[in-house]
Design brief:
The complex is a heterodimer of chains A (290) and B (345).
Chain A: H1 2-10, H2 19-22, H3 27-56, H4 60-69, H5 71-104, H6 110-117, H7 119-122, H8 125-136, H9 143-148, H10 157-168, H11 170-183, H12 186-193, H13 198-227, H14 230-236, H15 246-255, H16 259-289
Chain B: E1 3-12, E2 15-25, E3 30-34, H1 41-49, E4 56-61, E5 64-65, H2 71-74, E6 76-79, H3 91-100, H4 110-123, H5 139-151, E7 157-161, H6 169-186, E8 189-194, H7 197-203, E9 206-211, E10 214-219, H8 221-226, H9 231-236, E11 241-248, E12 251-254, E13 257-262, E14 269-275, E15 280-283, E16 290-298, E17 305-310, E18 314-319, E19 330-335, E20 339-342
Parallel strand pairs in B: 3-8, 3-9, 6-7, 7-8
Antiparallel strand pairs in B: 1-2, 1-4, 4-5, 9-10, 11-12, 11-14, 12-13, 14-20, 15-19, 16-17, 16-19, 17-18
């Protein structure tokens, strides 16, 4: 998780180009350091990514497309898209409300709430999944009541969505809180004094002021929602073609020694990561411009 | 519109921002709320606007209860200290905002909005900048756009929070004069907050001097400068030389000796003598009520100032443009005009 926490901060102000004046190390030292960094990047990031695509296409394009067209694979892709769509939409609303409440109002327990928002970042995703088993599982807190009313949460779509929502909750809120706090409430006060209603103020002032940060949060939230393995694995039940998301499907195929098929599905996730990176770079530029 | 503020108090935690304030603002007046930070002036302005609510007391607009109406319904133009322009909107759209958010049946059509915005941009002399964004404007330009935006809703009251606070000295002076002229031409009841006495005295019809959540004095710039009602006002507005004295048997005493000065009816006890530095006459020591030794002379010409050690012991600084006193001289000091306030008054 430390990686995504880092990226959350990275698009803030970059230090000015004052390095020139203090850069006095000999060329040999400089090049060695740069070489180590590049080698490290290559071995740990570029090589694995290349391997994914190499393995995916190891049996040719036909086998690649066949692996993706397999009904279980299609079901997994469909489920992943649905889970991501629901959880991102929910977290967009929750995150916006939480950030708005924290940034624009003072209330008791505010610092506790800020800490709580970060909780999913510091808890292992497996725990995040187990929580829902403990609440809604057959032996769980609400388990009996739910059985009586024929409500299925665990080993079904609602459980997967709940686990994903919990794990991805901080992304939108964390992105918005510092920006909204920095912007303060004066523009809202100005809007209201000019006769705007609460809704008009929100849609004409508050939302446009944070739109790039919001998109940025949504992007990261989506990437994590589609890629989440641990929490989803606990609540999914691994029913093929029904409750398997893409990451779970990759694992199953891999365990069954269907390497090419596993990497074919994995290549879609890798592609998602690359698209996310590009969009992130674009959004960061917009955010810096603001 | 006439504004009446009556017995207004406001508490922030344990801090009393306003401790029972009464104020009457006449229709068409330009009033300055002047005071140091923490004096409650901004809180009072925000209560008049409806951005803050008093714990107790009442606010009336033309005799009707303003506290029954929200800021939306009060129809006030509020200019914020840091302008609070909508950063994602152009200058044109900033000014048009108040017109676009009107309920549909009262909203003017697009042509009327354009005409109104252009008229306001002409008024603040910034029509060429209509398509710019706020971050492309200078501080003074932002301030004028904020004003145009507030005027777009044709407010019955114009409220300005430290309108020139964030500007550099030269722009401040220009905008000050410009605001004065603007007020004369549109004649809307206006209240502005400032901590800068020069600003308040130059621009306002009347000045409300505040300290620690209370109003110390309300009056024209001449009144608060020439006839300060309290020691705080004397000290805060203009320069003052303050000498600790005491009153006994109806006479002033300083350093154990009786002064040939009027005690101005102040009761027996500790008091302070306030004199404007320019009102002190420097002469021979013989008959002067106060005597002292010149310790240091600094500045030249009209900015010449003397640091004086009074006899027996107290040091003051005065204007001394007309005197030829040099360090070491024993001189006499005669306050031509002065005020005596009991300590705490």
């Amino acid at each position: 998780m430390s990686v995504s926490v880092g990226t959350l901060v990275s698009h803030r102000k970059k230090p000015a180009d004052a390095a020139r004046a203090v850069r006095s190390e000999p060329a040999l030292v400089r090049w060695t350091v740069v070489a180590i960094a590049i080698l490290f990047l290559f071995v740990f990031l570029v090589l694995p990514l290349a391997t994914v695509f190499q393995q995916a296409f190891s049996r040719g394009l036909g086998a690649y497309l066949a692996a993706l067209a397999q009904p279980d694979a299609l079901a997994a892709i469909q489920l992943t898209l649905m889970v991501a769509a629901i959880s991102v939409a929910l977290n967009l609303v929750f995150g916006l409300i939480a950030a708005w409440a924290i940034a624009k109002f003072d209330f008791p327990g505010k610092s506790v709430l800020i800490t709580l928002i970060d909780l999913p970042f510091s808890v292992s995703p497996v725990i995040s999944g187990l929580v829902f088993i403990l609440l809604f599982g057959a032996q769980g807190f609400f388990g009996r009541w739910m059985q009586d009313h024929d409500i299925q949460i665990i080993f079904a779509l609602p459980g997967i969505v709940l686990a994903t929502v919990l794990v991805t909750f901080p992304f939108v809120a964390r992105e918005l809180i510092p920006l909204m706090q920095e912007q303060g409430t004066q523009e809202e006060e100005a809007a209201i004094s000019l006769g705007a209603s609460g809704l008009q103020t929100f849609f004409r002032v508050t939302l446009p002021n944070v739109k790039w940060a919001l998109l940025y949060g949504v992007l990261l939230c989506n990437a994590r929602a589609m890629g989440e393995f641990g929490a989803v694995s606990v609540v999914s039940g691994h029913v093929r073609g029904e409750t398997n998301t893409m990451p779970l499907h990759v694992e199953i195929l891999y365990n069954e020694y269907q390497f090419a098929a596993a990497f074919a599905v994995a290549s879609l996730l890798a592609l998602l990561a690359l698209v996310t990176l590009v969009l992130k770079a674009v959004l960061e530029r917009r955010l810096d411009a603001e | 519109m006439k504004i009446d503020v009556s017995h207004v108090t406001k508490q922030f935690g344990s801090f009393a921002a306003l401790a029972g304030v009464d104020l009457e603002i006449k229709s068409g007046e330009l009033v300055a709320l002047l005071g140091p930070s923490g004096s409650g002036k901004t809180t009072l302005l925000r209560i008049i606007a409806g951005l803050e609510w008093p714990d107790e007391g009442q606010v009336f607009f033309d005799g009707t209860d303003a506290l029954a109406r929200s800021v939306r319904e009060r129809h006030v133009g509020f200019v914020f200290q840091h302008y609070a322009l909508f950063r994602h909107l152009t200058v044109f759209e900033n000014v048009a905002f108040g017109l676009r958010v009107k309920p549909r049946r009262r909203r003017p059509d697009e042509a009327k909005i354009r005409a109104k915005v252009h008229e306001l941009l002409d008024l603040v002399q910034l029509r060429p900048l209509a398509e710019r964004h706020p971050n492309q404007l200078s501080g003074g330009q932002r301030q004028r756009i904020a004003l145009a935006r507030a005027l777009a809703i044709e407010p019955s009251v114009l409220l300005l929070d430290e309108p020139f606070g964030a500007l550099d000295a030269k722009v401040r002076k220009e905008l000050r004069r410009w605001l004065r002229h603007l007020h004369e031409s549109i004649n809307v009841t206006s209240v502005f907050v400032t901590h800068d006495q020069e600003e308040a005295l130059e621009v306002a019809d009347r000045v409300v001097v505040m300290d620690k959540g209370r109003i110390e004095q309300v009056g024209t710039p001449e009144e608060v400068y020439e006839r300060p009602a309290t020691s705080f006002v004397h000290d805060f507005i203009g320069e003052s030389v303050v000498i600790p004295v005491s009153v006994a048997d109806g006479a002033l005493h300083f350093g154990g000796g009786r002064l040939a000065l009027d005690s101005q009816g102040v009761h027996t006890g500790d008091a302070r003598l306030f004199v404007r530095p320019a009102d002190i006459h420097v002469g021979p020591p013989d008959d002067a009520p106060l005597k002292g030794t010149v310790k240091r002379v600094h500045g030249i010409g009209s900015a010449r100032r003397l640091e004086i050690d009074l006899v027996p012991a107290y040091s003051i600084e005065i204007d001394a443009s007309g005197t030829g006193a040099t360090p070491g001289d024993l001189i006499g000091l005669t306050p031509n005009r002065y005020r005596v306030f009991a300590v705490g008054a």
